[in-house]
Amino acid sequence: MRFIGVRPSAAALFAAVGIAAVVAGSGAAGRSQAKAQFVVGFSNPTGAAASLNATQAAVVALGKHLGFKVIPLDAQLNVQKQVSDVNQFIAQKVNAIIVFPLAPNTLDPALARAQKAGIKVVGWDALQTPPAAGANIAPYDTNMDQGLSFGGAQKLVNLVGSMLHGQGNVLGVGIGAPVPSIAFQVKQYQALLAKSDPKMKWLATVQNPTDNIAGGEKVVADATTRFHGQINAVMSYNDASGLGAAIALRSAGVKNPVIVGEGGTPDAVAGVKGGKLTATIDIVPWRQGMILATLANKLMRGQSVPKWVENPVDLYTKANIAKYVNWDAAVKKINSGALTCANGGCPSSIG
Q1: Which domains does the chain show, CATH number per domain?
Q2: Quick one: how far is CA 27 from the chain centroid?
Q3: Contacts of 83 (CB under 8 A, 6+ apart)
Q4: Which of 145, 155, 81, 87 is closest to 116 using CA atoms?
Q5: What does the pLDDT look like over 3-15, one tens digit per residue?
Q6: Looking at residue 27, what is its pLDDT?
Q7: pLDDT in tens, 63-108
Q8: Cα gap 63→56, rounded to integer Å
């Protein structure tokens, strides 16, 4: 699934906020809406991730204007805790649950119980591919794709292929945890690269067990020994692993490697500016939060929503990094009511 039409960059949308702000909850209709108090349970897969916390903050901020309260719980990358958190939401009789599933097969029974109890379930990277028309996506009512495996992956593949002129060796970095969406994301890198640049070679995919810079450095350092300096590019599932790869490749004496990641974290922005990272995909977590909040709000009010929504993402290199939109600043504007889906670049399919 792709976006409809041509979308302006996040920076352009953000700049437009001061010109044409559309404040959710304004006027008589907005005041009436705010009286209908709903409660949404938000399952954060790990509070240690800045992007996930920014998404959470955006959901909380927009929820305030749409008329619902958010109960966030941190699963701490623990599947059983996430199951327990969902059960807690059911016991608390929330109206909707927003969940990024760590292990769908384990979590699905709890989510099915939630649906049976009348709770709307908004998936967040819960489905790997867009569902067929009319397909049943239970235990979810809708799903938002972060844009990493489709729009983001394609943008990075195009960049890597261009910078290496269609030839060279690529190392992939995935996460050392059973997160289906991330495994699919890295497989997409490989599949899209093979399709667009068949002369390039995918050396291997190594797994970062710690989800941070240190873990990325270690597994890429091991790979440099294994492949004896053959690595020309690294395509990482996140920015932290990319920054770790930069350290490992520099220590191994690899000259001018192409290193890309996804996230758009503050560390990645600094890394792009400083030349450690070639590029990052900003997953625009504040926009993700607005999309998730809007989907949950519509479902709780009995309105129809698409079964699949893809979050628009932005590619940043040294050439355009100055246009990057700070996540905290965006969340503050959502909190004030100045930034909403109406002027924040949400997909047109959710209204």
Answers
A1: 10-146+285-312+326-350 (3.40.50.2300), 148-282 (3.40.50.2300)
A2: 33
A3: 106, 107, 110
A4: 87
A5: 223 333 333 333 3
A6: 40
A7: 999 999 999 999 998 999 999 999 999 999 999 999 999 988 899 9
A8: 10
